[in-house]
Amino acid sequence: MAFETITKPDDVRASAVLTEEIRARFVWDDARAMLDGLPTGKLNIAHEALDRHVTAGHGDDAAMTWIGKEGARRAFTYANLADQTARFANVLRAHGLGRGDRVFGLMGREVELYVAALGTLKAGMVFSPLFSAFGPEPIRTRMEIGAANALVTTAAIYRRKIAAWWRDLPSLKLILIVGDEAPEDCVALGPAMAAACGEFAPVPMDAEDMALIHFTSGTTGRPKGAVHVHGAVATHAATGRYALEMEPGLRYWCTADPGWVTGTSYGIIAPLVNRVHMLVDEAEFDLDRWYRLLQEERIAVWYTAPTAIRMMMRAGEEAAKPYDFSALRFLASVGEPLNPEAVVWANRVFGRPFHDNWWQTETGGIVIANTQGMDIQPGSMGKPLPGQVAGIVAREGEALREMGAGEIGELALRPGWPSMMRGYLHEQARYEKCFAGGWYLTGDLAMRDGDGYYWFVGRADDLIKTSGHLIGPFEVESALIEHEAVAEAAVIGLPDETAGEVVRAYVCLNPGFEPSDELEKSIRGHARKLLGPTVAPREVVFRHSLPRTRSGKIMRRLLKARELGLPEGDISTLEADET
Ligand code: ATP
Ligand code: MG
What we know:
Elements: H1 15-34, H2 45-58, E1 62-67, E2 73-77, H3 78-94, E3 102-106, H4 111-122, E4 126-130, H5 136-145, E5 150-153, H6 155-162, E6 174-177, E7 187-188, H7 189-195, E8 210-215, E9 225-229, H8 233-244, E10 251-254, H9 261-273, E11 277-281, H10 287-296, E12 301-304, H11 306-315, E13 330-333, H12 340-350, E14 354-358, E15 368-369, E16 380-384, E17 390-396, E18 399-402, E19 408-413, H13 428-432, E20 435-436, E21 439-448, E22 454-459, E23 464-466, E24 469-471, H14 473-481, E25 486-496, E26 500-509, H15 517-531, E27 539-542, H16 556-564
Parallel strand pairs: 1-11, 3-4, 3-5, 5-6, 6-7, 10-11, 10-12, 12-13, 13-14, 26-27
Antiparallel strand pairs: 1-2, 8-9, 14-15, 15-16, 16-22, 17-18, 17-19, 19-21, 20-21, 21-22, 23-24, 25-26
Helix pairs in contact: 1-8, 2-3, 2-4, 2-9, 3-4, 3-7, 8-9
Bound molecules: adenosine-5'-triphosphate and magnesium ion (MG).
The site of adenosine-5'-triphosphate has 25 residues, from β14, β21 and β22.
């Protein structure tokens, strides 16, 4: 197969790093061996995810169980999905689209979204999933940046968010509407699929051919359109196996929406490549529904987000009592810092380990993780997976300095793994700024301890400098939620004449607690006891909710901008919030 050549770091000095390098190369060879490839040295993600399993005699294996909002249940085998995606690819082709064209998906977690994603890839076209809850403007901007040629959506979303402007986007030629009827100038997907042929040979792609465009969450600013290639499937295969222990038949549930990268890499590609039986729930978070699904669907590996666990914690342990989680092997989360408190809570309530994972849209797949057999340190992201070389660096002008154990710096990675982004669309300068001295710089601050565990400190942008100290918001937030009244916390630095910045905390309370001066004092006292007077927040402000992105991340920059009366910046990914 034609995979990219793995870039070798230019300045490998320490022997420890060298060992990692050897380990790294081994893993990608291993990952390649997990894949099938197409004749003539080409590959296609959809072939790896679906068709090859059918050819190998696993067509009747369960691939996806889909649960609708109202409880409808639909089951799909690998053969079913191979057939559906072939039909979808044929529909695209019948409407004049060809290799390299861009197809955007805009709908909730409906079956058609999954079919569209893999059908598009099968046809050799590029897929870009968007959150269905985005307003018309963020949708339009992203489709302009991505030069969309086709859109798959629902009639309701079309009427509210697309109809008014799509004819002004010259690249956009085709709108497919889920269901049997379509508005004028659009095509109804139902009849088109029914009439299409259920066979389609996956288009042979080079490993470096563009496959997906994923927009980042927009937590720190204007979202970037990260470009990913077909060869990325090697990462999905390997990390699915190593970090999420995927194996054929595994009952697996990833709660993420494909509107952000987790929902695609680990909600579509990795599970199907590893031939697991995945669950897709159309509904949003609902405490009892989620506990019930874990129990009834006998989920063995559950991949979710810290915010979901914090919501469960807020509802209290009692709510989990009636359910049986005996099928569960472990749970894992990604996307936000996982407070040690949450790890301990989940251990107790589920009786299973909780594995924090770190990665980002740009890395395309899991990079740092807690894995089975590791001695889990609550609050640590874990260690780099085999195949990854991480470091902690400080930018000093043009130069980079590598930091030692226990020092805080920017988390950096040696480039060269298959799912690394290949660029930000139309933003070459922003892309190039991510690389220096042979490293990819992640924009996150972290610390590596003497045992090789990585600890998240905060986003570089969120770092607080007070009286000569550097404070990562995560540490403070984790201490705050250990207070019995605090469900969630966000911490920012506000300008201060004497200290440079002072720490301000916003907290949401657990049920049964009301904001009061005494409670504010008690929370501050608790933080002071755990963190000391310099690091503890000077002020604690009560909120009903915190501003967050659609992917569930707290937008600290927005809290700060609002506090300081500054422009809010890009808030296209903001979930409606009450402040
Ligand atoms: P933008 O880049 O547009 O500001 P974003 O960085 O939130 O948005 P994503 O790529 O979806 O967009 O999120 C990746 C980021 O999420 C990481 O860089 C990190 O800051 C945070 N993150 C992910 N996993 C973890 C984790 N386990 N612990 C702490 N932070 C995490
Ligand atoms: Mg980011």
